Amino acid sequence: MKTISIVTPCFNEELNIRECHAAIEALFDRELSGYRREHIFCDNASSDNTVEILREIAAADACVKVILNARNFGPLRSNYNGVMAAGGDAVLLLMPADLQDPPELVPRFVRLWEAGNEIVYGIRKIREEGVVMRTLRGLYYRLLTGLSELSLPPGVGDFQLVDRKVVDAMRAIEDVYPFMRMMTFECGFRAVGVPYKWVERRRGVSKNTLLRLVDQGMNGLVTFTPAPLRLVLFTGFVIAGLSLAYAFVSLVLGLVYFRSLAPPGVMTIIVAVFFFGGVQLFSIGVLAEYVLAIHGQVRRKPVVFERERINF
To answer: Which of 13, 71, 87, 97 has the fewest Cβ atoms within 10 angstroms?
Structure first.
């Protein structure tokens, strides 16, 4: 009997944990009754009753495993650590505790996986959220997927079912700040997408603050595309070129309107400031390319530090 692993990161989710566990358990009692269940909860040092509830669930259900982090390492690190701890033949990278990604899609994901697809990913075609956030997320995903070398449609999140060989390939990528939704595509393998509706949170408040979202977004851009650095490089190059053009125009105007536009030397100073500013940006951009390459090789530390594991 094959095992399907489900990974659920959580932080102060006492209002949602029981329902999330029950929803997954019901799926394996019905549509997925032919598979063994492994549900891993990764707690990010919750300060409410989440840990106590997880202990109760794990004591009553041997299929539930719990990882308790020593502190809050953020959702990306905690989630990735849970995926690396999963032992299933296929792993659902993220089943949110608030069930914003519908668990009803998991049986369909499993069928597509059994059909030979190593990566089955969800595409958030419809989002139940405010216009501003929906627009910003859409622009970001289009920017990320448009600038990346990887081929994937906008709207792909961590709601993906991947084969064991994909998880093993991800393990070989030693990254202290993993961005899983792109990492799976970096590994390659056969992939298929399933559009779905991302529903609004019914209970509790999202712990992903705006600052965390910005941090995660920048991590995705820096990790999977050199576009930010090359934008700086090309901006510096353009500014340096414009400053040279301005220098030529200033020379012509200075000869035609000698001493009538500005005191001698002022235009020279202006040209020098713009020129060297452009050169500096250009140089920083070049150096940053090397720093990024070095940075990707030298980051070596645990993704999270764990306090306890339950049922492993």
So the answer is: 71
Q: Are 228 and 221 in contact (CB under 8 A)?
A: yes
Task: Count Cβ atoms below 10 Å from residue 152 Cβ, excluding itself.
Answer: 19
Q: Per this entry, what is the length of the chain?
A: 312
Q: Which residue type does 139 have?
A: L
Strand partners, 197: 126
> Cα–chain-centroid distance for residue 124?
14
60 sits in which H/E element: helix 50-60
CA dihedral 297, 210, 100, 66 (to 10 degrees): 50
What pTM does this model have?
0.74
Query: Rounded to whole angstroms, how far apart are CA atoms 302 and 306?
Result: 10
What residue ranges of the chain have pLDDT lower than 50?
none
Sheet holding 64-69, edge to edge: 191-198, 119-127, 156-163, 90-92, 3-10, 36-43, 64-69, 306-310
Three-class SS state of 108: helix
CA nearest to 122, candidates 181, 179, 82:
181
Cα 266 from chain centroid (whole Å):
49
Q: Under a CB-based contact definition with an 8 Å cutoff, are residues 238 and 98 in contact?
A: no
pLDDT given at position 169: 92
Residue 233: C-alpha distances to residues 51, 147, 236 (Å): 48, 16, 5
pLDDT at 105: 93
Between CA 107 and CA 101 the distance in angstroms is 13
